[in-house]
Design brief:
By secondary structure, this protein is α/β, with parallel strands linked by helices. It is built from 21 helices and 31 strands. The structure holds adenosine-5'-diphosphate (ADP) and zinc ion (2 copies).
Amino acid sequence: MFVEVAFPISSYTQFTYRIPKKFIDQIHVGIRVKAPLGKRLVTGIVVAKSAESDYSGKHKNIKELIDLQPVMDNKLWKLVQWMSSYYFTPVGQVVKTVLPAKLSTKYTPPTTGLVVYKSFGDNYEQLQKRAPIQAKVLQFLSVQERAIPIAALKHMVSSPNAVCKTLFDKGLVDLDEVTNLPDVTGFTFSKIHKEIAFTNEQKLVLGELSKKLNSRKFSPTLLHGVTGSGKTEIYIEIVRQALEMNKSAILLLPEISLTPQIAGRFRSVFGDQVALWHSRLSHAARAWTWKQICAGQFNVTIGARSAVFAPLKNLGVIIIDEEQEYSFKQESPAPRYHAREVALMRGKLNDAVVIMSSATPSLESYYNHVKEKYSYLRLNKRYGGAPYPQVQIVDMIKEQEETGKFQQVISSKLQKIMESKFAKGEQVMLLQNRRGFAPILRCGDCGHVETCVQCKIALTYHSHERLLKCHFCGYETSNIPIACHKCTSINLKLLGVGTQKVEDVIREQYPGIKIARIDFDTARNIPALTRILEKFAAGEIHVLIGTQMIAKGLDFDNVTLVGIVNGDTGLFLPDFRSGEKVFQLIYQAAGRSGRRKPGEVIIQTYNPDNPVLIHAARLDQKKYYNIALSERQELNYPPFSWLIRLEIEGTKKELVTTHADKIRKKLSPSPKGIDILGPAKCYRERLRGKYRMHIMIKSNKTHDTNGEKLHSFLQDCLAVGLLNRLPSSVKILIDVNPVSVL
Ligand code: ADP
Ligand code: ZN
Ligand code: ZN
């Protein structure tokens, strides 16, 4: 007997091994083994088992078995294979992404011993005389309403465990244990209980979803519901119905760190059936959770993008909340997968309902609804009938002319409204989608911009830490130049606005006002972040300043003003999606205002005529999406075409250029309907010490409905050696359906 084993290496070949007799009955597809690869023993996964082998050389033997049971079932295995071919990534490497890193680690989560009163026995008086301590404990337990942790008896006795054991042996108490599920310390999943009576609109949507669930067929659905329309309550109800049918469910969330509210709701309804899956769990806890899910201990998994792989059996529904979010895309390492794409394939393989949900769907999903590839459910009304906020654009150029003040952070209009909110005891959120103090340090004489040594990108000044930081590679220096590196002028200027600057301006202007800031720098500390959110909810903070992290998912009753400090941020990046991103961000942020009381939104901009901002201000999504779609169509960009991006990178500029040209030549001639652009320098032409160029391959959907032509074109090119003879210092990354082309 022979097996094919895939290893997590970048080679595209699998290797054949002989199964030694002793393992024949134990080796199955999906089991991990150790086998010799070169001179080392390497862990791989069995991908096929057969009686014959075509390989004519000498077969090596499998050396060790790691698992007794497959660590993924057949359907998950099919998903891995699909990912391997769809994302042009070797199977072994896909497996490495799908399976938790240290699956073999032994780990048992800590438990808490519980004790509960049973009876006083036949002779309590005797017990009181002979063992007064035991009697005292028993007396105490008899008045408790439920089982209590044994450790809680510490205040009465010095060795509560021993006492409880003795009482148990006498049949007077019962002992029990609860497992302390691996959560992240500091996450408050305070259970949030609610009485829900669904509105008519919600009932209609739920009715449709139940029908789909009951049909037990793959059914991709776009749930397009305005912020506050009760999407979360819909998820809960549909998951409840799935569980009732003995099916399981996955809920994918973009940034779990900011969604304790949703997780809390789920915990309160489903209790310990819910597994939380995210990058902050320790390796051991992840491995444990994976195996528990395999064993059927959890029926619901909530998590960020990799939760899409949770090995649930009998999957009934996958929900992708905020489906337009880019954090669902894995950028590195390969496979560069998108959790939405994977969820759709997994749904197909499992005959499950896939709900893509958003207030601002991605243009792709919206288009798929227009083309009737997805069914479409709409929630138009905010729950409780809260009206939409009033949105105004503030023209910052006019503001400059009128006030004579340049580079104002907060316009007089925004100031005035903020003050009226403070007077009423209402709260304000300010969005500035740039962290740090100032994103540019520029010489006022020669124009030289201070950039990162690794990346050709301006360093951001962080005033609170007194550092210059690169937001790409993480490089930072406290060595802040006092003179220009090029011309030695000391006329250096900090330009632009980051969250820290907004914070400083507000602090200075409104000394009595309590302010908090949420961005990548402050959110790393989850307990602190949770405290900020709790304080804001309790009204102890008046102004919350933040990056896009505060734009989504947060639900605070008393916020009646959202200020977009700079609506232009990101608007002019050379990416065909930049407009869509800005629109979604502003629209989402606007949704934080006036969830219970009438609210307002102010968008400050230097480009008041920009259609993105105009339609965002009118909250006219349909109009903007139509404009954006016709632009995409004109330029033959997704969703009208399929796009694959080849990124060529290396430390030596000439080598990158030469090989980019070589690769480009090997790609022609291309079949009809397939366009090739480039090679061109990436917009971010140097990152982390590497030069970057890219080639884009576009395939128009009128020729290539499901992208198969594009895939087989690239597959053929790879098979005849597209990437052969690349020097080791040049790397090529294949990005299928890239979400960013910078
Ligand atoms: P979304 O996810 O669409 O932004 P949520 O599900 O967070 O909206 O709903 C907004 C608020 O309204 C939440 O506090 C939610 O609990 C509440 N809510 C929504 N629908 C109902 C309902 N039918 N009954 C009671 N409360 C509801
Ligand atoms: Zn200079
Ligand atoms: Zn850098």
